[in-house]
Amino acid sequence: MTDDISLGPVIAIVGPSGVGKDSLMEALVAAEPRLSLLKRVITRAPEAGGEDYTPVTEAEFAQREAAGEFALHWSAHGLLYGVPAAAVVAQRAAGRGVLVNFSRAMLVDAQDVFGNFVILNVTASPEVLAARLAGRGRESTEEQAKRLAQASKPLPEGLHHVHQIDNSGELSAAVQAALAVIYPDQPERA
Question: What is the pTM of this model?
Answer without folding.
Answer: 0.85
